[in-house]
Write a structure and sequence with these properties.
Strand content: under 5%
Oligomer: single chain
Distance between the termini: 73 Å
Order of helices and strands: HH
Number of helices: 2
Shape: elongated
Length: 63
Amino acid sequence: MRIKTYLQNSFNELIYKVTWPSYSELQNTAVVVMTAAFIIAMIVFGMDYIFENIMETVYSLFY
């Protein structure tokens, strides 16, 4: 009985209380997320490239 009540309440909340974004809001949010992901990926790439060069320099000093 408790599961049935839970499912009914969940369904009612999804139908009547949740505010779903419009298609244009969804597109704008997707663009923001893709842009942020690209910027973060470029930052990580830059840090990796710099660290690789530092380590190559350190290794070349000892070998």
